[in-house]
Amino acid sequence: MDEKILHLTKEKMEKTIAAFRNELSKLRTGRASVSILDIVKVDYYGTPTPISQMASVTTPDPRQIVIQPWDIKAIPLIEKAILASELGLTPVNDGKVVRISIPPLTEERRKELTRVIGKMLEEARVSIRNIRRVSIDDLKKSEKDKQLSEDESKVLQKKVQAITDDYIKKIDELAEKKNKELMEV
Questions:
Q1: How far, in Å, CA of 67 to CA of 101, rounded?
Q2: Rounded-to-integer distance, Cα 49 and Cα 39, Å
Q3: E runs forming strands in 38-81
């Protein structure tokens, strides 16, 4: 029972970290990253299709993304989808591949993105704390139902707090790394 609660706590916190990491990867910094295209869906034969499922996507240098579709006829569709997305990127088509140049970020945009990261960080922290609260409530309920002694419950609550502190630290490190990446020119 006790180890099960700890295991579930870790599992839920891992999911929160994975979701936070995924959200961070969608933020466009001044560097080219294939993951920024994950949100773009191309209307390919009536089906919204991720670009990565219909083309080879590479970053030959830090400021450029190259999309080489397996079906050349899909190039205009890919261009249209990128232009319609909220990424603010302009694709260039040379007949065989689509190139996207990533413009350097302005100081104002960097500050705005730093605020966005801060907001996302706080949401992730709240999520971790909510998981902790539920786990501690479960432990207290088990104690009340006489499944755990008071001492066992206190020890497990301390373990849950230690797990929480560890995951909060991981989230802080991820945000700090993204902020550093953002400030690089």
A1: 12
A2: 10
A3: 41-44, 47-50, 55-61, 64-69
